[in-house]
Amino acid sequence: MDGLKKFKELWESVDKVVFGIVKHVCVLMLGALVAIVFYIFVGRYFIHKSPMWGEPMSLFLLTWMSILGSSLVLRTDEHLKVTMFDEKMSKGALLVTDLLATACIFAFAVFMFVYGRQLMQQARTNTMAGVNIPYAWMYLSLPVTGVLYVLALITQWTRRIGE
Question: What mean pLDDT is reported for the chain?
Answer without folding.
Answer: 90
